[in-house]
Amino acid sequence: MFDTVKGTASEIKDMKIRGAGRIARAGASAMGEFAENYGGGSLEEFRKDLETARSIMLGSRPTAVSLWNGVQACVKDVYGAASLEEAKESVACNAKLFVETSSKAVEFIAKIGAKRVRDGDVLLTHCNSSAALGIIKKAHAQGKDIKVYATESRPWRQGLLTVKELSEAGVDVTLIIDSAVRSVMSRTNGVFVGADTVTSNGELINKIGTSQLALAANEAGVPFNVCTETYKFSPMTMFGDIVTIEERDCGEVAEAGTIPKGVKVYNPVFDITPAKYIGAIITEQGIISPGSVYDVMVRQLGNDIWKTRDNL
Ligand code: RI2
């Protein structure tokens, strides 16, 4: 019964499916498929099994609120459903809607953000963000002559995906190692990164190393732009939750047997960029400041958000 959900969760955990937006869409699709193929008995049983499916999915990547919000969007109407069929249909429809609207959001971000790229700009990006790359590719397609530095992004080296994608789109792109960021910053006039999570006070949680780009950009007076769909905003941070920073296996950093016995390896996947280093957050709802994240969350969630607080 849980095969598809387990399969997708394990592909997300193993980074075969990665990128905050992609994992949210994959998670939502798997939940939709689970509901469509559900052959069990009562509405009560479905709700219980759906909860199990939800837990399996959410356990795959603890930091990405995108996955939590994507899965939540699928299951939100199940408790109001009057029959098993209605509940199944609500999950399947909500899953499709989430995939459509989140894909559309990336397109809006590209159109909005590309206006912030000028002819002749030299840009810097980190890791592999579809929202950030959408902007860069759109600016290039508009005929702007741009150059891009892309970090390697150890340990998974997603920067290699970035340089492939940009070069295939015809963009002039240069790969750098992560520690070359400060050295190239003085030649750069815009940083564009993605987001895994944005907190209610406007902090960015993104791939490890992002905060170094922000610091170096701040020092050099280079605008630091975060490119993100608003479903990566984390409502629970409003009520005090602290984002769990995922730590992954030490084998991703150093192969077994390559470091002396007794040496420890620390492999955090994300870091936190304080709001004060962020110039603009480019979303599908327009360009906002880190100080506006709280207002966007409250508007999006409406009065339901106070029920969450009252049930704390
Ligand atoms: P999009 C990625 O996380 C990177 O940190 C990237 O900046 C972020 O997701 C957003 O990516 P990981 O899955 O949603 O590689 O913009 O750990 O594609």
What does the model show?
The protein has 312 residues and is of the alpha/beta class. It has 2 domains: 3-103, translation initiation factor eif-2b, domain 1 (Four Helix Bundle (Hemerythrin (Met), subunit A)); 106-298, Rossmann fold (3-Layer(aba) Sandwich). The chain has helices spanning 3-13, 20-36, 43-58, 65-75, 84-114, 130-141, 159-168, 181-185, 210-220, 293-301, 304-310, and strands at 122-125, 147-151, 172-176, 190-193, 197-198, 204-207, 224-227, 270-273, 280-283, 286-288. Strands 3-2-1-4-7-9-10 form a 7-stranded mixed β-sheet. Strands 5-6-8 form a 3-stranded antiparallel β-sheet, with helices on one face. Helix 2 (20-36) runs antiparallel to helix 3, helix 4 (65-75) crosses helix 5 (84-114) and helix 5 crosses helix 6 (130-141). It is globular and about 65 Å long. The two termini are 33 Å apart. The model has no long low-confidence stretch (mean pLDDT 95). Bound molecules: 1,5-di-O-phosphono-alpha-D-ribofuranose (RI2). 1,5-di-O-phosphono-alpha-D-ribofuranose (RI2) binds next to helix 2, helix 6 and strand 6. Residues 18-22, 127, 129-131, 158, 193-196, 206-207, 269 line the site of 1,5-di-O-phosphono-alpha-D-ribofuranose.
Radius of gyration, in Å, reads 20 Å
CATH class of the largest domain: Alpha Beta
Number of helices: 11
Q: Helix and strand string, N-terminal first?
A: HHHHHEHEHEHEEEHEEEEHH
Helical proportion? 40-55%
Ligand inventory: 1,5-di-O-phosphono-alpha-D-ribofuranose
Query: Approximately what portion of the residues adopt beta-strand conformation?
Result: 5-15%
CATH topology of the largest domain: Rossmann fold
Number of spatially distinct domains: 2
Mean pLDDT over all positions: 95
Oligomer status: single chain
Question: Helix- and strand-based class?
Answer: alpha/beta
Described by the principal axes of the CA atoms, the overall outline is: globular
CATH superfamily of the largest domain: Translation initiation factor eif-2b, domain 2
The CATH architecture classification of the largest domain is 3-Layer(aba) Sandwich
